[in-house]
Amino acid sequence: MNEKYNVYLVSDSTGETLDRIFLSLKSQFAGFEYDKKEYAFVRTEQQIDKIIKECNTSNNSLILYTIVETKLAKYISNQSEKNNVPCFGILGNLILSFSKLLNQKAIHKPSAQHVLDEDYYKRIEAIQFTMAHDDGKKVDDIKNADVILLGVSRTSKTPTSIYLANRGYKTINIPLVLDQQIPKDLITNKKICIIGLVADPERLADIRRNRVAIMKDHKLKEYTDLSFIKKELEDSKNLFKKNNWPIIDVTRKSVEETAASILKIIEIKKNK
User: What are the tens digits of pLDDT across the range 242-262?
Assistant: First the structure.
């Protein structure tokens, strides 16, 4: 049986960056068992002392931190070493290396990535646009979208759209329903980046059955019928191929992986 670790994620900001890095890190080690505790907006030595004290009361404690203020970063490193707690700074060496490369001193300001700059407002605008255009709600201004996602029900259109919006891309997602016409602008406007999402029919049937169970609406037999789903998917693929729209199979992809594929397609279309 593998040992269980107590992982302390310590950040001088929201902790979002550190959490994502840890998510990537732990995925590389099979059977890594852990309990995670997160400490955000840690900006004093007193806060660090409390964390170190807690580490000393736990077995197999380790610290990962993103602290950009040099004095405080040294403090957590030194205190961890004194107390024999493994401690890893995520950004320190990277900031130093980048500083040397750019020949510029880093500002070492916590939460510097959260300033209200042009990119911030672009993301907010994209999120508002995407939410207003979710699930085919509004299609009269599709020319203003950065990307349009098409697919039958439960092909991860909404979560993928929200993820893209958080990256600053105005996204419209439109569900494909049998016998329902798609907006004509999708066919005529060749400048729009349109992407089709598909999934394995058996997997889709499972997801839909779970959704129906949650909704407690057992009248939707056709919605979960495998033959019906196969027909839906086949029709959607034919539509995508007919219009030369890229197709992404989301069956074994996370939202992040699907979004990464979409961003590549957007970049390719921009450079054409």
Answer: 999 999 999 999 999 999 999
Helix axes 157-166, 118-132, angle to 10 degrees: 160
Helix (H) or strand (E) holding 249: strand 247-249
- Residues in the chain predicted with pLDDT less than 50, given as ranges, are none
Sheet holding 194-198, edge to edge: 171-175, 147-151, 194-198, 247-249
Domain 118-270 classified CATH 3.40.50?
Answer: yes
Pick the CATH number of 4-114 from 3.40.1260.20, 3.90.190.20, 3.40.50.920, 3.40.50.2300: 3.40.50.2300
pLDDT at 108: 64
The full set of domain ranges for the chain reads: 4-114, 118-270
The DSSP letter of residue 41 is: S
